């Protein structure tokens, strides 16, 4: 077991170097939320503040409003899109089959993958928050309990997304089809889960559909961290429902784990 852990730790460094040496992966999974936050923050800056109370207080800028959604989308992009396409490519190109013929343990392989996902997701979140503060003067929460909430949302969310990424990697039949299979799923979830559109503006039936998937709950939890308390009334049940956020993310974590165990293969399907 110590040898497996040491090999896994070394795989983390290997995976990180490979990730940051791939410009398209870095842009579309690591920097993409920052780019989108910058676009939305600048494009809608003239429209004024969102969520202003009747007395004229409590509003936030568009950049502050979009920050929670981009934070949730970042975990989806790194955990699902990046990991699913990466594993599908390695399987299609024969890398996994070759690794299966070496002394490398599958546990070490996945320690490397999950470690890379955790580090890049944490770096992305820190960079996204710093960008929002420096570029748009977004005010951050000051209560310690909100930062603790962000910590468990991040941990539960990124693990669930990573396991779903492993499970989704079984769908593409080749490295060429990986992006075509995975990208539409990722984009659709972002549009119906309150990332690019205000969730309260969506039809109620579409909000119900989005509630079946983890990104909606992760975005809702992020809004509870970064937005003022009165924004809670704009949610579907007029509540942050943090208990249901944890339950849904936990359920999807288990679903992702079961699907990963059932569908993961070292060789591509014929």
From TrEMBL:
Location of the ABC transmembrane type-2 domain: 24-270
Transmembrane annotation, as ranges: 25-44, 64-84, 114-138, 150-171, 178-199, 242-264
Q: How does it sit in the bilayer?
A: Multi-pass membrane protein
Per its UniProt entry, which superkingdom is the organism in?
Bacteria
The molecular function terms of the Gene Ontology recorded here are: ABC-type transporter activity
Q: What is its main location?
A: membrane
> Its GO biological process terms?
response to antibiotic
> Where in the cell does this protein reside?
Membrane
Q: Which UniProt keywords apply?
A: Antibiotic resistance, Membrane, Transmembrane, Transmembrane helix
UniProt key word Lipid biosynthesis:
no
Using the record for this protein, list the coiled-coil segments as residue ranges, or answer none.
Answer: none
Example GO CC term: the record gives:
ATP-binding cassette (ABC) transporter complex
Protein name as annotated: ABC transporter
Question: What is the scientific name of the source organism?
Answer: Leucobacter chromiiresistens
